[in-house]
Specification:
By secondary structure, this protein is of the alpha/beta class. The chain has eleven helices and 14 strands. It is globular, with a radius of gyration of 18 Å.
C-alpha cells in the first residue's frame, strides 16, 4: 500500500535528534561514492523568479526523487518560496512506498545538515549565534543548532527590520544592524534571498563558523570574496558547488572538503580555523529524511 504523508503527519515523527545523525550518515555515504545522484536539474519557468528542480538519488537502503518548486517571488505574497514533493521507492522491487509533502522535510534537513557541520567545525565553547535572515530557515536553524551548541546570545538581522524585530520577540533574540550582529559572533547563518553579498569576511572573528544556505544559483551570492577565499571552505557536494553556487563559482575559492569527508573523519579543518559551510541541499538528504519519516510512520 502506497502511503501519502502530509506535513502534519510528518511533523509528528521528524525530530532533529534523529535527523541530524541521519544527515551525517547520508552525506558520509555520498562522499564515499556509495550514492548514485546527479547534480539537480533546474528548469527555469521565469528567469530569477520561478524554477523547478528535479532531484533523484539511489542509496543502499532507499531510493527516490524530489520535485521542488523554488519561487522567490512568493516571499512578497507571504507564501513558501520552496514547495516540494518526494516519492520514495523500495530498492528491492522498485515499487513505490510513499509520496511525502517535501516542504517541512526540506526545511528541517537543511538545518540538520548545518547543525551536523557546526558540531564538527564550530568552537566547542561557541556562545553567540547570529542569524542573517529572519524567515523559515532562520527559525529552523535556531532550533537545530541548539541541539549541538549552547548559545547564550542570539542575534538576528533582516533586510526588513520589522521582520527581525518580530523574530527577536518570538525567540528571545536581539534584532541588530548587520555588521554589529556578525562581529564577535561564534556561529553565523546566512539564510536570505539576496543576490549580492551581504556578509563581509572582514567582519568575521577568527575561529568563527558560517553556515551559508541561501544563494542557490550560479549568479547569486550571500558572501563576499574575503569570507570565502581567506577561510576554510566546506561544501555538501564539490560537483554541485562548482555548478550551482555563485558564492563558490564567482569567488574562485578553493574547496577544502565535502561535509561527508568531515563526518567520516577523512579530513580535519585546521585547529582554530575560520570555517564556511556552503550548503546547496542534496537529493540524498531528502531521500534519507523521507525514509526516516516513512519508517517512523509505518512502525506506529
Amino acid at each position: 500500500m502506497v502511503r501519502t504523508l502530509a506535513e502534519p503527519e510528518i511533523a509528528k515523527v521528524l525530530t532533529y535528534e534523529r535527523l541530524i545523525p541521519a544527515m551525517e550518515q547520508a552525506l558520509a555515504a555520498f562522499s564515499a561514492r556509495e550514492v548514485t545522484q546527479p547534480v539537480r536539474s533546474i528548469l527555469t519557468v521565469e528567469e530569477g523568479q520561478r524554477f523547478l528542480g528535479v532531484m533523484p538519488a539511489v542509496m543502499r537502503e532507499s531510493m527516490g526523487a524530489k520535485l521542488v518548486c523554488f519561487y522567490p517571488k512568493n516571499a512578497a505574497k507571504g507564501l513558501p518560496t520552496h514547495i516540494a514533493t518526494i516519492v520514495l521507492f523500495d530498492t528491492e522491487n522498485g515499487m513505490p512506498l510513499a509520496f511525502l509533502d517535501g516542504r517541512l522535510i526540506t526545511e528541517m534537513r537543511t538545518a540538520a545538515v548545518s547543525a551536523a557541520v557546526t558540531r564538527h567545525l564550530a568552537a566547542a565553547d561557541a556562545r553567540v549565534l547570529t542569524l542573517v535572515g529572519s524567515g523559515v530557515q532562520a527559525q529552523a536553524h535556531l532550533e537545530a543548532l541548539r541541539h549541538v551548541r549552547e548559545f547564550e546570545e542570539v542575534r538576528v538581522w533582516s533586510h526588513t527590520p520589522g521582520h527581525a524585530e518580530r523574530f527577536a520577540a518570538r525567540h528571545g533574540a536581539r534584532a541588530m544592524g548587520l555588521e554589529a550582529a556578525v562581529r564577535g559572533a561564534d556561529v553565523i547563518v546566512t539564510a536570505t534571498l539576496s543576490r549580492e553579498p551581504v556578509l563581509k569576511g572582514e567582519w568575521l572573528k577568527p575561529g568563527a563558523h558560517v553556515n551559508a544556505v541561501g544563494a542557490c544559483l550560479p549568479t547569486w551570492r550571500e558572501l563576499d570574496d574575503a569570507a570565502l577565499i581567506n577561510n576554510t571552505l566546506v561544501v555538501d557536494s564539490k560537483e554541485a558547488a562548482l555548478r550551482e553556487s555563485g558564492d563558490v563559482i564567482l569567488s574562485h575559492a578553493p574547496i577544502f572538503a565535502e561535509a561527508g569527508e568531515i563526518f567520516a573523519t577523512l579530513k580535519h579543518a585546521p585547529r582554530g580555523a575560520t570555517t564556511v559551510f556552503k550548503s546547496l541541499g542534496l537529493a540524498v538528504e531528502d531521500i534519507a529524511a523521507a525514509r526516516l519519516v516513512y519508517e517512523a510512520v509505518t512502525a506506529r
